[in-house]
Amino acid sequence: MGKTIAYLRASTDKQDLSHQKLEILEFARYRDLHVDEYLELTVSSRKTSQQRRIDELVQMLEATDTLIVTELSRIGRSTAEVIALVNALVEGNIRLMVIKQNLDISRQDMNSKIIITLFSLFAELERDLISLRTREALAAKKAQGQRLGKPKGTLQKSKFDRDVERIKELLGYGLSVRKIAKVLGYSSHIALNTYINKRELREAVKN
């Protein structure tokens, strides 16, 4: 018999964590389950899976373990992300219990397979709808005469920005781009040369 872990996440209100914990305790008592460990955090769903400690959660779980959450939205920020995690849990023979959606998903259960198939269809539908809305929005802007994409000449952020003053200083000393890249620890002098040309750093040094 594996261990049981409860994952609790609230965006900002710590009181919500208490409500989730009470809900899980009541659920576990009713199902005659013992929760071995609680993973609790207050972080926005917009954060990365690492910041939401989802990666850590997956590492904690082993075959025959059980994961309890109050609702599916706690473990993902999109349908696709939730489906990916659910599939990973099922493949790892980990049972997932979701209180509000009344789901009990395990690898061996036929109902679980049906649920996962439906989830996958919903995830695909969500991707299609997002793609459709994006295309429609771009078409509408184009029809209104708006230019799409970034304005010509827009400079994007670069990893070289942090050393721009040092780069100009070394250019002023007459060092080649290859040597500057070596001094600053960059692997590609070609990328650095492109950066220098786009920002016209040689001209800036001369002036």
Describe this structure in words.
The protein has 207 residues and is α/β, with parallel strands linked by helices. It has 2 domains: 119 residues, 3-Layer(aba) Sandwich (Rossmann fold); 48 residues. It is 50% helix and 12% strand. A 5-stranded mixed β-sheet has the order 2-1-3-4-5, with helices on both faces. β4 and β5 form a beta hairpin. α3 packs antiparallel against α4 and α6 crosses α7. The longest helix is centred in the middle third of the chain and has 34 residues.
- Major sheet size, sense and barrel closure: 5 strands, mixed
CATH 2nd-level architecture of the largest domain: 3-Layer(aba) Sandwich
Q: What is the CATH homologous superfamily assignment of the largest domain?
A: Resolvase, N-terminal catalytic domain
* CATH fold description of the largest domain: Rossmann fold
List SSEs in N-to-C order.
Answer: EHEHEHEEHHHHH
Radius of gyration: 26 Å
What is the domain total for the residues? 2
Q: Into which percent range does the helicity of residues fall?
A: 40-55%
Q: Tell me the distance between the termini.
A: 74 Å
Compile the SSE list and pairings.
Elements: E1 4-10, H1 14-30, E2 37-42, H2 54-60, E3 66-69, H3 79-91, E4 95-98, E5 103-105, H4 110-143, H5 164-172, H6 177-184, H7 189-198, H8 201-206
Helix pairs in contact: 3-4, 6-7
